[in-house]
Design goal:
There is one protein chain. It is built from 18 helices and four strands. It is mainly alpha-helical and 519 residues long.
Amino acid sequence: MSHTAVGKDARGTPPGQGKGLAAGTLGVWGSVVIGLASTAPVYSLAASLGFVVLAVGAQAPIAFILAFIPMLFVAYAYRELNREIPDCGTSFTWATKAFGPWVGWMAGWGVAVAGIIVLANLAQIAGLYLWLLIGDGSLAENPTLVTGTGVFFIALMTLVSYRGVEIGAKLQNVLLGIQYLALALFVVFAIVGIANGTAENATAPSLDWFNPFAFESVEGFTEAVLLALFIYWGWDACLALNEETRDARRIPGRAALISTVLLLITYVGVTVAAMMYAGVGEEGSGLGNEVNAEDVFFALKDAVLGPWSWLLVVAVLVSAVSSTQTTILPTARGTLSMAVYQALPHRFSTVHPRFKTPSFSTLVMGIAAIAFYVIMTLISENILADSILSLGLAIAFYYAITGYACVWYFRRELFTSRHNFVFRFLLPLLGALMLTAAFIKSAFDMADVDYGYSVLLGVGGTFVVGIGALAFGLVLMLVWWTRRGSRQFFRGESLNEETPVLVPDSPDTYRRSVDGGLA
């Protein structure tokens, strides 16, 4: 629903109250914490490092660096768009303003479907690792128990998100602190093990680890970068909380850039330490051992940390639980914004009068994630695993749209200054093109029957789930298009390039801004 120039908007909201969210709750640090926590850094590394090493061996560090480049470029697109349009709908709002309602709706769906899929994965990991800590770990082999525990964690984090962004931010400080403590101890103990000679496969670092021309095959290079590319995903959560941030125009974009850089340092630093300690060999504790690929931390925890090995298991558990809560935040605010502009039923725009959260949207996201998780688990754990592998398609889809939206939205001023040329044109366009290439390459690879864990309709199950999830969004959009309540949105009346927004300058003050940056 667009905000009118004077008086009340179509929902009867007086000027100055925005969407009703808790303005001014987060500062720079809180936003950075949300951005970092959403990526689940410990779990992301545990689950991807081994497979990256299998693909490219000792070139794993440079693979993580190369994967960082498109993320950084797209982060600049987010920053520039957020400066002009600090709306919690982020990709949905920006793409609609740039390309119209159809592309914008699908961008919003990309955010939602990525969130729902990853919540199922995080719940599975949280349930699994909790029971690995109990007794001899055999309870983790009980699928019913693990699934029930995963459902509990989604429900719990949905409640935390429902109760308010401030309590969630405080919780994330603790959870993120545990993750980085575990990673710091892992690096320190690994270095100590190398120094005192207890590291079984100690390997001297080499500049070749950072040589982008040392990859032995194009296939391995592509696979490694695609694997590494999407472990950076999640930093954009802090942008979706822009309307709840003290300086909605500047802090979220700054936090996104800080988050991506900190993730790069974390991933590369821990990778180098692990390679120095365990090497990339295919036997024993080597990172190239396929037995260790699914979780390198679990494979190395006893050797590196000894009696403190349980801390790494706790860290992976905490990482999954932490990301569960921070993933609910942007998806719920995305659907809130879509409903405000009539791209979804009005009920999704409900904001809790006391907690100032998108109450209905938050509950729907939690319920949808639980339903998806349980259904996928009941059908087949292989299908669930393939749904996780397909996640990259949805991520590349809406990140690329956002990059293109930045270029097109600012098209009239791209060459008026060096800043605009670099940060509103060149970097966003390069990032979008890279992600488009990643989307296409991933889709072709996933169609192979040997890709993933299942075969559906004669092609890889990962392809069917990934493309099918996006296609299902197209169906839902067409269904909503036929409803009377959607007419203003699909006519481009409730949200377009000239639609004014309420921009929060401080916790207590809002000012109107006819955004677009074109005047």
